[in-house]
Amino acid sequence: MTPKHFLDIASQTPEALRAILDEGHRVKAEGRIRTDRLRGKTLAMLFEKPSTRTRFSFDLAMRELGGDTIVASGSEMQLGRGESLADTATVLSRYVSAVMIRMLDHGGLTTFAEAAQVPVINGLTRKSHPCQIIADLITIEERVGALEKQTLAWVGDGNNVLATLLEAAPKLGFRMRIATPPEFAMRPMLIDTARRLGAEIEVGTEPQGAVRGADVVITDSWASMGDEDEEERRHVFRPYQVNEELMKVAGPSAIFMHCLPAHRGEEVTNAVMDGPQSAVFDEAENRVHAQKAILAYVFDRLG
Ligand code: CP
Ligand code: NVA
């Protein structure tokens, strides 16, 4: 039987996403208690790139659900010496109940998942970050309300986090306004797909136009993992900083979100990060609740 992977938002049904979000709210309301819902299950967590939130939140989620975790980095495994992803997936499937992987190459993730006989969870690739978006949507529902009424303004890089929001928009009915520098725009194919599936998406290059009247203002680092060497980014993205002036255009009821880690003074100022409109630390906390819901989904234990 094909295991139930969680590799992207695009391949989930709106009903499955709704059930995951509901489970996230439910486990948050339940509190940070220990249960035995995943007793006997072990999650392997493989990291090719650094992580704070994804690593700690999955580890805590498994422990609080009564399961166990094993963490390793690609370089300390035989993967680093050329063992294939498929063989690694086959071996790990004999050891653990599910695998969460962070690797930049999305194709590598799908190769791993195709060979795995246990569920595989995408802990971030260059293409997408679906676990982050589950936490973000939970945060929006609790801070501003029903998703289908919201307009999300994305300001900054056309990156993996934005791509994942675009996968979610048509399934959950929120609108998006995007402002990126032309040289770092989102791939037109992803915008077209979201629109074709029914999402209302406005695309431009001007931050003030994007955030005017928005319910949520979102940004991310100007250079994602793997892009840090592109020095010109610092210059190109400067007009895309989320600061108090830009938040004033959005209005006082808008919230500010960022998946973190933030580069204070670059994509966001201290005043916005630490101000009353900031939801960034709720968003980080919600990673724990979101991971519990995603684990419940892959193990067929929702609700
Ligand atoms: N937001 C996020 O995925 O954070 P980490 O890189 O710390 O896991
Ligand atoms: N877009 C960022 C997200 C980090 C959590 C990156 O890929 O580095």
UniProtKB/TrEMBL annotation:
Domain Aspartate/ornithine carbamoyltransferase carbamoyl-P binding: 4-142
Occurrences of domain Aspartate/ornithine carbamoyltransferase Asp/Orn-binding (ranges): 149-297
Molecular function as annotated in GO: amino acid binding; ornithine carbamoyltransferase activity
Catalytic activity: carbamoyl phosphate + L-ornithine = L-citrulline + phosphate + H(+)
Top class in the EC scheme: transferase
Enzyme Commission no: 2.1.3.3
Chain residues that bind L-ornithine: N160, D220, S224, M225
Biological process annotations from GO: citrulline biosynthetic process; L-arginine biosynthetic process via ornithine
One Gene Ontology CC term in the entry: cytoplasm
Binding site residues for carbamoyl phosphate: S51, T52, R53, T54, Q78, R102, H129, P130, C131, Q132, C259, L260, R287
Tagged with keyword Endoplasmic reticulum: no
Pathway membership, UniProt: Amino-acid biosynthesis; L-arginine biosynthesis; L-arginine from L-ornithine and carbamoyl phosphate: step 1/3
Location(s), subcellular: Cytoplasm
Record key words, sorted: Cytoplasm, Transferase
One Pfam family recorded for the sequence: OTCace_N
Role this protein plays: Reversibly catalyzes the transfer of the carbamoyl group from carbamoyl phosphate (CP) to the N(epsilon) atom of ornithine (ORN) to produce L-citrulline.
Entry similarity comment: Belongs to the aspartate/ornithine carbamoyltransferase superfamily. OTCase family.
Official protein name in the record: Ornithine carbamoyltransferase
Source organism phylogeny: Bacteria, Pseudomonadati, Pseudomonadota, Alphaproteobacteria, Hyphomicrobiales
